[in-house]
Amino acid sequence: MRIEDVERLADDTVEAIAYQNEVSDILQSNMTAEDEEAMLEELEELERQEADRLRLDLPRAPNGALPDKEIVEPEEEPEEEPEEEEEEEDEEEEAPQRSRNNPMLA
Hints:
The chain has helices spanning 3-28, 33-57, 84-101. With 106 residues, it is an all-alpha fold. It is elongated, with a radius of gyration of 36 Å.
């Protein structure tokens, strides 16, 4: 680490401590109504600025009403009941394939 980096870090630390002390003093003191009003006005201005910045980043949404679209329900297909014999044959055919493809682990 270079000496310039250490000095910059020390300066940043001093600034951070000063800022922390300033915030602590404000929190410990009793604010007047004027101070509180000024602070709330500043907060509102910051919120407006942030909202404006966000509006620039977001795509435009339509202003008018969206067209109504008819919702089409899928037609229900009648369920066919499988025959028991076919199921048993399928199970017998699948069993050897399972053992070949997936060896048993102990």
